[in-house]
Automatic annotation (TrEMBL):
Alphabetized UniProt keyword annotations: Aspartyl protease, Hydrolase, Protease, Repeat, Signal
Family listed: Belongs to the peptidase A1 family.
One term of GO molecular function: aspartic-type endopeptidase activity
Keyword Nucleotide-binding attached: no
Highest classification ranks of the organism: Eukaryota, Viridiplantae, Streptophyta, Embryophyta, Tracheophyta
Annotated source species: Sphenostylis stenocarpa
GO BP of this protein: proteolysis
Source domain of life: Eukaryota
Signal peptide start and end residues: 1-21
Positions of the catalytic residues: D78, D278
Record-annotated Peptidase A1 domain positions: 60-407
Protein name: Aspartic proteinase Asp1
Length: 450
């Protein structure tokens, strides 16, 4: 799900359906070498450096190499959807901004009869007029934004934490018709990296090839940046809070609950919440009743303190100004109480939400509430835990054990990974450092799942 700061836009609830046909040009593909996917790789992981922040950018991205020779694409990470798509180098509507980050297909369209194609269609009666028909997709967002395109399959290089390197062929969307709601401008990224648990996701495809366990996670820093990982190698052996995943009708995002809200450690009237964990949402959203209760709790607790409502700050719906301009959250922490979400079906499991997990400091020097009314923006009764509340936590989506976990972490530092001699981060996107050149190194392999 994508819920972004600009216009509070891109609230993602994926719906897939077939669309009209589309013809695409050709290019050469790399040679193939033997499949070296072996069971020992399942204990490994692929780790990627994340860039971005909650405010003012409103998104977190990774750079992913695609194709041969590989080309970098900056993609918005989104645990609320499963399909990955990039802007197509084709006649398009609502094209994303970076004209140098367009993907050119090369006779690698996924066919309509491919089993994966049925996974990206709403209709249970998926029929193909011809076996050679291409597989079309549509991603429709709750705010009426959308992406239409064709499904392709291409090489994506991965370097794993156990030292192995692979270049599997992965299916993803090549989008040529993007729509954005309201006055929201096209994003500065080339597309979306879907981390959800639908079969079209990169995660499930990597797992199906035997390269990793069916686990994905992220660690987002309040200072900006962080890391993303596919596989379970970075997960610490202790200290994690785990709660069960709820069955989802769409089976493409991660949800848990019921949970109740605590204010300064005390119970509140906000109970029975089912929560979607969504790295594609900048802020946290509650249904209108829960939202109003939270606003009342926070507002009433501020009475008599040196904060006054500031209606002139357009950054978020509710903001306050102080006796002087604020420069960081540390300037306002003394005014606000901590929140927490207690998962009532799991004993002693709660997610702490200190002030920095629900407040931002704007460029105007005010403090604003980063919890928003989801009903007001079209989410109806859904409750979404967005980036602001997931910061400084390693968040783990374990599809094998059907559980979601989190643990406080220093997200500026990669765990259990060999460091690159030029900096703190390794070579997760190996092509950047010449590992994938014109030749194929002996340690790498192409894995063709067709």
């Amino acid at each position: 799900m994508d819920v972004r700061t600009k216009g509070i836009a891109l609230l993602t609830l994926l719906l897939f359906s077939a669309i009209s046909s589309f013809s695409i040009s050709a290019a050469n593909q790399p040679h193939k070498v033997k499949n070296l996917a072996t069971p020992h790789r399942l204990s490994s992981a692929a780790v990627f450096k994340v860039q971005g922040n909650v405010y003012p950018l409103g998104h977190y991205t990774v750079s992913l190499n695609i194709g041969y020779p590989p080309k970098l694409y900056d993609l918005d990470i989104d645990s609320g959807s499963d399909i990955t798509w990039v802007q197509c180098d084709a006649p398009c509507k609502g094209c994303t901004k970076p004209r140098d980050q367009l993907y050119k297909p090369n006779h690698n369209l996924v066919k309509c009869v491919d089993q994966l194609c049925s996974e990206v269609n709403l209709s249970t009666d998926h029929n193909c007029a011809s076996p050679d028909d291409q597989c079309d997709y549509e991603v429709e967002y709750a705010d009426n934004g959308s992406s239409l395109g064709v499904l392709v399959r291409d090489y994506i290089p991965f370097q794993f934490t156990n030292g192995s390197v692979a270049r599997p062929k992965i299916a993803f969307g090549c989008g040529y018709d993007q729509k954005y709601s309201g006055s929201t401008a096209p994003p500065s990224t080339a597309g979306v990296l879907g981390l959800g648990n639908g079969r079209a996701s990169i995660l499930i495809q990597l797992h199906s090839l035997g390269l990793i366990r069916n686990v994905v996670g992220h660690c987002l820093s309040t200072g900006g940046g962080g890391f993303l990982f596919f596989g379970d190698d970075p997960i610490p052996s202790s200290g994690i809070f785990w709660t069960s995943m709820l069955p989802s009708s769409s089976e493409k995002h991660y949800s848990s609950g019921p949970a109740e809200l605590l204010f300064n450690g005390n119970p509140t009237n906000v109970k029975g919440l089912e929560l979607i964990f969504d790295s594609g949402s900048s802020y946290t959203y509650f249904n209108s009743i829960a939202y109003q209760d939270i606003v009342n709790l926070v507002t009433n607790d501020l009475k008599g303190k040196q904060l006054t409502r500031e209606a002139g700050d357009p950054s978020l719906p509710i903001c306050w100004k102080g006796p002087k301009s604020f420069k960081s959250i540390s300037d306002v922490k003394k005014y606000f109480k901590p929140l927490a979400l207690s998962f009532t079906k799991t004993k002693n499991v709660q997610m702490d939400l200190p002030p920095e997990a629900y407040l931002i400091i704007t460029k105007h020097g005010n403090v604003c509430l980063g919890i928003l009314d989801g009903t007001e923006v079209g989410l109806e009764n859904l409750n979404i835990i967005g980036d602001i509340s997931l910061q400084d936590k390693m968040v783990i989506y374990d599809n094998e054990k059907q559980q979601i976990g989190w643990v406080s972490s220093n997200c500026d530092r990669l765990p259990n990974v060999e460091r690159d001699s030029e900096g703190d981060f390794p070579h997760p996107n190996a092509a950047n450092f010449g590992i994938f050149g014109n030749g194929c190194p002996a340690s790498s392999e192409d894995i063709d799942d067709q």
